[in-house]
Amino acid sequence: MKDLNMRVLYSFVLFLFFCLSSGIAAELMTPEDHVGFLKSSLAGARNQVVVVSPYISKWALGKGGGDSIVQHIRSARERGVNVIVFTDENFDKDAKTNQLKEPADEGRKMLVTAGVDLRVVPRIHSKNVIVDGTCITFGSFNWLSAVTNPENEFCRFETSLVRRGQEAGDAIESFKLGLLRTLPPSARSAALPLDAEDELKSAIALYQKYRTHPSFGELAQNILVSHAYNYDLREGLLVLRTIKGTSSTAVIVNIAEYLLWYAETSRDFVRIAWELHDVAPVKAKETVQYLIRTINRSDEYDNFDFIYGQLTAMGMPELANKLEEVLIFGAPRDF
Question: Which CATH fold would you assign to the domain 22-192?
């Protein structure tokens, strides 16, 4: 038994050495460590704090006094800090009634009242705190439900590791994709964005970083492509420019076909054709032909120079001349 204990201790020392040498601080070893870390994170955050806690309890949040978790959340919100909490949709439910247990129900209400962006999602069991995109924790401590009184029989030994700086940034991006990969597609919209004011900008950054990753590449593409289907032609065109050369022609054409439903002016059609002409020339040509067949001469006459120049630049001089015949001289629109 003594030898076994020595091996366990030796393994733990090696683990700590690995953590410290990798830039991971094995800092949080007691309930007081964890609670203090969360409070100091809320007090020191400049932009955003994300808490992932599969369980929530009003007892862990406190009664709203000056040093309670919920009061620290209120203070952070008053400073303009965005506080997001992820929790699981089922873990806090009563097995018999399938209703939220009273401590969890009250706890959720306390968070929302304090200004928290509460996101209830399925299949989440991770326990994390992310601060300003520069710090992330990994561990077993339930941040918003754990019993922290060491005299209580339900108080458990929990530990968390903390990553900071550049390593934290890399870990946060991996965490986002891991979370999204676990969630069913219907729940992914509730999980984004984690730390970006511009969702599309965040999605592009993820795609550019992970597009060649064997596990996350397809997911990163799907997250980005989903922004092309949000009824915004500008964002859809930006997605097309981003994925050109790295995604299949089929994906690009599918996005373009969707965007064509929302093209309203000749310039819209030409911009879509421009994004297609070097990767899907047949579809680009079909787009221009459709434009010529449907263009309104009186409304689009002033756009002639722009359209003609774009068609010529795309290597479609015959269609540029056809446009001139139709728009200027009223020639037949057949091909």
Answer: Endonuclease; Chain A (3.30.870)
